[in-house]
Amino acid sequence: MSTGAWVLVAAVVAALLFGLYRAYADGRFRGTHEVRGGPPDDTHEPSVLAGADLDHELGERATLLQFSSAFCAPCRATRRILADVAGVVPGVEHVEIDAEHHLDLVRRLGITRTPTTLVLDERGREVTRATGAPEKQQVLGALAGLLAD
Questions:
Q1: Within 10 Å of residue 69's Cβ, how many Cβ atoms?
Q2: pLDDT tens readout for residues 93-126
Q3: Residue 130 near residue 27 (C-beta atoms within 8 A)
Q4: Which InterPro entries would you find in this protein's record (predicted)?
């Protein structure tokens, strides 16, 4: 086999592996991100929205904070799913933020792509996050532990 054919095979295998990883990882809630500029003290940890110029109310029990952009097709699907969950689960609000218009908040929270969904507790602290479009069951599962307390 020629060198060009080996390069082609390697490129196809790399693309396949990357695609499989993205299919596995997209929409899964896992971990949190350390908010830059915030104190590490858990008892006085501020809302992730503290200092942001936003007019959004937090949910009584939880908030689904979605970062999206204008030309993002998965963002529209995520919007529908999160709004549906917020409509079904009492005390949960859905807040959508245009990442392009709030770059300071995007940088501070470590948002690297859209859609990104953050699950916030009643005080606005990040509990978990997902990049990519989550499924409804994944969102409900992420809220289950928070709402059980």
A1: 13
A2: 999 999 999 999 999 999 999 999 999 999 889 9
A3: yes
A4: Thioredoxin-like_sf, Thioredoxin_domain
